Here is the input.
Amino acid sequence: MILEPILISIKVALTATIFTLILGIPLARLFTKYDFRGKDLLEVFIILPMIIPPSITGYALLVLIGRRGLLGKVLYEAFGVSIVFTWIAASLATAVVSLPLMYQSCKSAFLNVDHTYENAARTLGADERRVFWKVTLPLALPGIISGIALSFSRALGEFGATLMVAGNIPGKTGTIPLAIYFAVESGDTATANILIIVVLSFSFTLIYGLNKWLKKGQNT
Amino acid sequence: MIFVDVAKKLKYFDLNVRFEMNNEVLVILGPSGSGKTTLLDCISGIKQPDEGCIKINNSIVFDSSGKVNSPVKDRRIGYVFQDYALFPHMTVKNNILFGVKSKGISDTGYCESLMGMLGIKHLEGRYPPQISGGEKQRVALARAMAVKPELLLLDEPFSALDSETKQKVYNEFLGFKNKCDIDIILITHQAEEAKLLGDRFIQLKDGIVI
Here is the structure.
């Protein structure tokens, strides 16, 4: 019973983190390397879910992927598929809310890479792809790993947007934060306390370990 | 034969330099902010001149009238940066092999002999933060030479070294110069260094040769 929301949360948070990583790295690279029309406006849309109430993000996603939504209608009519109130919808909502953290971490990681290293690689005959994979990305790695840890922690704690698009279906979409809320509401404080300890211990260990690792990297 | 004739508008002055060199060490002497590094960046392709022409042996790598601007990777130039720019996440050996691998060369024998010649073979498994300034300078030189460039650019490579190490490295450089048949442009702001290491030197001030 207690294990169920933990497993769902891990599945949702992992999927969301992978999604934000796949999207966050190229977006951060694009926005730090190139200038194009509408760049500032697009960047606001990426960061917006970090500062607006998650319920608004959830509502926007419902308008998009709900059965009568812009994308949801197409999916339902073409394939008979509806993703609202599934763990996929929970992952999507979580990813949208976590993406700004991943994007910001990757962006500052790329901005902190000294261009002299990239230029040195070019003078040594490396093409732009090799410069990125062998020089830029490894040098930006500590920042990217921070982004992964922060996004994963944020994904584990996501509540509002998830509730709007995935509801709280035990065994299906009931993540830890939802399980805590409904356990407290029904007076089951024992379950709530255990889940709170699990989340706090995990997040504390993750951030503490990350800080130690980053500090060690700076000293070597 | 190297031919450089570049003009570039900078923030406080215009860079206007023209020179030729033939199998020699040309020292460019000048105070900080006189356009020395920008000149090297233009020759290597890191920065683009507004006008001019750059020829490295038989190939034109930049020509504003003919709209030629070869990318940095194709210019066959070795560049030792002021702070060496050794990749901190790679071992000394991988730093030196980086260019060789970029160019798809499988024979690493030349790199091995370079490391032997510069006395850095014993450092191959170490990372740049674990070696001294003098060692970094030799590793950077080996890395730049590993791709067999036709022109070697050295941007104040001795400025970060203490005076004792400097004297040792000067002697090593003179030995290296005699062994390698390559054009070298060395930047410095120290007149004694220019006289000691160069076959010829030009003085740069506010972007022009004086």
